[in-house]
Amino acid sequence: MEKIITIFLIIVAAAMFAHGLWKGRHNHHHFHIGHSHGGSLGIDALAYSSKMRSWNAGYKVLLATICLILCIAFNNIYVSIAVILTMGYLTVVVGELEFDHYISMMTIPIVFMVVGAITIAIGYSLKPIGEYNLHVFNLFYIYWSKKSLLLAAKLILRAFGAVSALYMMTLTTPLTELVSVLRKVHMPKLIVELMNMIYRYIFIMLETYTRLKNSAESRLGYVDFRTSCYTFGQIASNLFIVTLKKANAYYNALEARCYDGELNFLEEEKPVKTWQIAFAIAFLFVLFAIWFLTR
Amino acid sequence: MKRRNEEPILQVKDLHFSYNDEKETLRGISLDIYEGEKIAVLGSNGAGKSTFFLNINGVLKSSSGQICYRGKTIDKKSLNELRKNVGIVFQDADNQIIASTVEAEVSFGPMNLKLPRQEVIERVDKALAYMNISDFKKRAPHYLSGGEKKRVSIADIIAMESEIIIFDEPTAALDPLNAAMLEEVLGKMNEEGRTMLISTHDVDFAYRWADRVIVFSNGQIIADDTPFNIFCQENILEQASLKHPTMFDVCRIIEEQSEITTQESYPRNINEFKEFMNKLLLTKNY
């Protein structure tokens, strides 16, 4: 049974890969919005340009959550591989995220996983007690077994499955839409509004900080370590004052447009399409089937 | 002014305001604004222009004085009436934009007016089309350029369909192309009969665009007249540290050199200037 499923997964992977290549043939020039501020804000820019942005945000959150839970609960190599493949396919081929970007995002957790898996896969001892042993410098033995390798592989795949499901969500859905999902599940208004405002102000604060930093740098503010420390302190305190001023200006602007204590925005309705529901059901069914057949 | 028999939209009577008790920022402002007027507000930094705008929008509360909207005196309860009908486009678009998509941002005002969803959608689409930014609908404001942000901030106010629109130094951070775009939009709005107040330091712009100029100095209105009359009064220009518009100076020099006084007012733009020159050449019989 395992062999059949392995072959099945390989065929599916090949088909997805082929589809990706075929799609990529048409548009070599991917669409970029704005400049990346690096790190987590890069994710935001990627989410804005994703083709899967038009999908219902609640649907994506639900699908990602279910996949995450199944991946962890089943703890099954085949299920994990199926989740990784499908989520990767959705993000890269359907969402048209550049493959390089996806891989570089995936390498962020890879270090943690490999380090964690190594400690599970291999052990060391003064006597050769494992299935396989490696004598190091005539001092001690590093040993491992088929079972421990399998366990490590399972762990890595399981973690990657979970990560890929969450990436599918975050790389295709801008934060504001995630926040509106939270609003729909009746998260307290205060938290939802704070999330919205904080998100917007992160960019403004970064911009202000960059301006202050550039002006300090142009006046040799970072010439040596001591000056750098001093400059950093000055910028931090100035940033605080600027923030207070900006908050005031914002409040005026809000009031000018009849703000009455509640932030109301028009939220776009993105209905879930029938084929999307059908896809989700079919996919979950396949996951269950794989798990059942390889138990 | 020309429309004295008409009822003013907005009437300000002896308005006083201070941020703290030490110094009054506005010291007795009285002003009538009539429908369809194009008013340029001039004055140096700190003269009280922006404070005045926030006052007539109902954001800041005056310490004494009266504001009447269409004959109705505004009190605490009807402040929102004022905010609904007087819209401000702030100087720095980044200080105005709060939502995380352009569509949501423009919808903020109409949503606060508690309009039905369908009407909000219609108004947003209309405002975006008006400012020619329909393509940016789904974009995040932090990925837009300065000029694009300015357009969004104007669309914000257009969607509220306020009767009076105030622009606080709109051309301050714009490149020439975007400034030209802005003037085009202002022209379009005026054709639709909207009432506009624009504060600016650009006397050339004020001279060619406005049909009424108000000069602020030190928390007071020191002059309120047609652009031509204002720029003829040297003492006022000096008090508010303003310069003559280039067109004004050029025409005056021509007039002086040709020793003919034909016009009561000077041309305000290039087309009018051409006519002016033609007339001048005809009378001189060159």
What's the Cα radius of gyration of chain B? 20 Å
Count of alpha/pi helices of chain B: 11
The termini of chain A sit apart by 10 Å
Low-confidence stretches of chain A: 29-39
Task: Produce a short descriptive summary.
The complex is a heterodimer of chains A (295) and B (286). Chain A has ten helices and three strands, in the order H-H-H-H-H-E-E-E-H-H-H-H-H.
Furnish the topology, listing elements before pairings.
The complex is a heterodimer of chains A (295) and B (286).
Chain A (H helix, E strand, L loop, with lengths): L1 H25 L13 H10 L7 H18 L2 H18 L4 H23 E4 L6 E5 L3 E5 L1 H25 L4 H10 L4 H30 L6 H32 L17 H20 L2
Antiparallel strand pairs in A: 1-3, 2-3
Helix pairs in contact in A: 1-4, 3-6, 3-10, 4-6, 4-10, 5-6, 7-8, 8-9
Chain B lengths: L9 E8 L8 E8 L4 E5 L6 H8 L7 E6 L2 E2 L5 H7 E4 L12 H11 L4 H14 L15 H13 L5 E5 L7 H16 L3 E5 L3 H7 L2 E6 L2 E6 L1 H6 L1 H6 L6 H13 L11 H15 L2
Keywords:
heterodimer, A: 295 residues, mainly alpha, 2 domains, 3-stranded antiparallel β-sheet, 10 helices, globular, B: 286 residues, alpha/beta, Rossmann fold, 6-stranded mixed β-sheet, 4-stranded antiparallel β-sheet, 10 strands, 41% helix
